[in-house]
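Example 3.2
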Amino acid sequence: MHRRLPVIVLLLLGLLHGAGGRDASAQGWPARPLHVIVPFTAGSATDIIARTVFEQVGRQVGQPVVIESRLGAGGTTASAAVARSDPDGLTVLFTSSAYTITPLIQANLPFDPLQDLVGVTPVANLPNVMVIPPDRSFKTLPAMVAAAKASPGLLNYASVGPGTASHVIAELLKLRASFQAQHIPFKGPAEALTEIMAGRVDFFIVPTLPAMPMIREGKLLPIAVSSSQRTAELPDVPTTVEAGFPDSAYNFWFGALLPARTPRAIVERLQREIVAALDEPAVKERIVALGGEPTSLSPSEFEALLKSEIETNAVVVRAAGLKPN
């Protein structure tokens, strides 16, 4: 028995050394500037939030941060570039919920969204609100659904294009509430909002920021928010779940991902630095000014969310008849 003791001690020392090695990978990080790739244009909400959060992260870790907009293929060009980068925690993908939609409607995808990248944390949710013309006979979501069921083909709705969040959120609600409505895609939210105010379209699910001025003026009537919680801007407007439609919530997030082979200690270190940045009042204020609500999850929680969203979106995409192109 005593002869085996040194072997046990050596095994324990080996385990401790392994743990220490993993910690060391995070302690020496980052040795060089951080490179954050954003799949949307400079000046977009995603780009501004990325700059706001990561410039603070850079100050915390003592390294400069380079933000690069890399466009193409609905965001998959940027995602693939990060997936192929060195897994040293220095190249970060900063994207949105589009990450869990685009792979389902993009043919010949150059990366696997669940195998090639790993979630770090979301940094903000962007509440979306369902707005209708104020002159409609229905004034609540349940009343609208009842009207649609009573007269199939009665309703239409706006989006900013097939496969966008405004389209997928509406299709998810149609699926969960079991009603029909004709999809009318527009080039952007301004055009869609104009058609709603003119009464030519029945509903539109849109981020609260562009809709709030018209809501305040009484030109749009908000009847539900699609997120899992009510938004501070519209505290009296229920969520779609509160309105009586289970499993209809859709949280539109912005968040950070890393290459899948990045050491776990570095993934967790970056997550902690992002959470610390979100605690800075100036960072919070900037996100709120853009219509976002600061949030965070652990890497494991974010990975579970990504998997769940892709599974749900796959069902919605099939129901909507969208095919990869």
